Amino acid sequence: MLAMDYRGPYRVRLSEKPMPRILHPQDAIVKVTRSCICGSDLHLYHGMVPDTRVGTTFGHEFCGIVHEVGSAVENLKVGDHVLVPFNIACGKCHFCQQGLFGNCHESNPQATAVGAIFGYSHTAGGYDGGQAEYVRVPYADVGPMVIPDWMDPDDAVLLTDVVPTGYQAAEMGGIQKGDTVVVFGAGPVGIMAARSAWLFGAGRVIVFDEYQYRLDFVRQYAPAEAYNFREIDDVVMFLKKTTDGLGADVVIDAVGGDARGNAWQYVLGSKLKLEAGSATALHWAINGVKKGGVVSIVGVYGPTGNIVPMGNVLNKGLTIRANQASVKRLLPRLIEHVKNGHINPKALITHRVPLEDIADAYHLFAAKLDGCIKPVLVPGGA
Ligand SMILES: NC(=O)c1ccc[n+]([C@@H]2O[C@H](COP(=O)([O-])OP(=O)(O)OC[C@H]3O[C@@H](n4cnc5c(N)ncnc54)[C@H](O)[C@@H]3O)[C@@H](O)[C@H]2O)c1
Ligand SMILES: [Zn+2]
Ligand SMILES: [Zn+2]
Fold first, then answer.
1. Quick one: DSSP state of residue 11?
2. Fewest CB atoms within 10 A around its CB: which of 46, 58, 212, 373?
3. Would strands 204-209 and 180-184 be described as parallel, antiparallel, or unpaired?
4. What are phi and psi of 16, to 5 degrees?
5. How does pLDDT run across 104-142, given as a tens digit for each residue?
6. pLDDT at 302
7. What are the tens digits of pLDDT across the range 201-254?
8. How many helices (H) and strands (E) does the chain have?
9. Could you tell me the CA-to-CA distances from 50 to 43, 122, 178, 323 in Å, in that order?
């Protein structure tokens, strides 16, 4: 079968790989109908995630048709069209039992922090992902969900990560009615966080990014006030000024380690890799939130450390919440939101690219070319 093949930083291609096989009775093999490239894939693509091995296939956002099931699988049958959450979760361990499906203790037993994620390096379990014609899906009775008849698969594929992640970012903010919510990052995740902030009762939503086309999009879609941080001298001061000198009630970091906007952070974190990515948005979040406020982090940083203004966290009395999204926990609620029109996921899809053009698709998304917000990869014959 054909699959995306990581060759080293900034180098991906399509290769012939062996068909995935059932390795455990709870596995399923899924024939991919569409997959996405995510901002999280860019951390891999930029060589920022430890133990990203040459030859692995990325892709943690995908839908597909069940092609084969292991002998213990009860909830799926061959031919079902399923959406597959990006977390690989056993459904039974201490953490899954609490709904922390992103922190499963069984699927990635070597790690102490993250659970397993499809196509996300050996740090996240070493499972191949769905930017391929076929993919092995472990614990097939736990994660995958049959796409409801009424749902467009383009909406479904965004329910595997982007929608739940943006929604959870807002949820972790503990937004109170009327709160001012600031979102750093107008990528798919930040856009969804801004949209979700209203669903939790925000009174004002402000988004920062540097790409005008993304700011224009989020202004309409969320809707939100949207500012280009490149045009602002001091983002923290700007935030204070626009909130009566207090700071925002809730600030969401939907950027993570690929942040721009501070040369030192960029050189130390992203280029020299002396930190786990550049923490520019995180600094702005901690310094721009009000005393007693909440910083909600969904932007991804590597497993080693970052220099963060811990003194300000303490002295301001901040609450910091962060996690990989727990997709399975949120799906029932989000499906209702899609059904009743509160969230329109597929509006984010700007590009539909044949899987063969995987290298172009990565370049397009990484360099933010051609107004790209979310590219969907379509395998030949899907
Ligand atoms: N926690 C989770 O479960 C989870 C799931 C999916 C994605 N993520 C993470 O969320 C982040 C965003 O993902 P995405 O798909 O939207 O990525 P993306 O690359 O499309 O968007 C990131 C945006 O941040 C902007 N940006 C860069 N520096 C900034 C700064 N200092 N301030 C404000 N904006 C800045 C970029 O211009 C870009 O538009 C990534 O770190 C990704 O790894 C986390
Ligand atoms: Zn993703
Ligand atoms: Zn588990």
1. E
2. 212
3. parallel
4. -80, 125
5. 999 999 888 889 999 999 999 999 999 999 999 999 999
6. 82
7. 999 999 999 999 999 999 999 999 999 999 999 999 999 999 999 999 999 999
8. 11, 17
9. 10, 8, 41, 18
Ligand 1, residues 258, 326, 350: which to mutate, most atoms within 8 A of Cβ?
Answer: 258
Closest residue by Cα to atom 13, ligand 1, is 39
The residue to which tokens 């799926």 are assigned: 76
**Residue 337: predicted pLDDT:** 98
Question: Is 155 strand, coil or helix?
Answer: helix
* DSSP letters spanning 306-319: ----HHHHHHHT-E
Tokens representing 221 are 């879609």
Residue 20: DSSP 8-state: P
- Asked whether residue 87 carries a pLDDT value surpassing 90, the answer given is yes
Query: Rounded to the nearest whole angstrom, what is the distance from the C-alpha of residue 211 to the centroid of ligand 2?
Result: 20
Cis before 223? omega within 30:
yes
**pLDDT for position 71:** 98
Residue bearing tokens 């009424």 = 150
Q: Environment class of residue 21 by beta-carbon count within 10 Å: exposed (0-12), middle (13-18) or buried (19+)?
A: exposed
Q: Atom 10 in ligand 1: which residue has the minimum CA distance?
A: 299
Check the CA dihedral 308-314-317-319 and report its sign.
positive
For the segment 60-86, the average pLDDT, to the nearest whole number, is 98
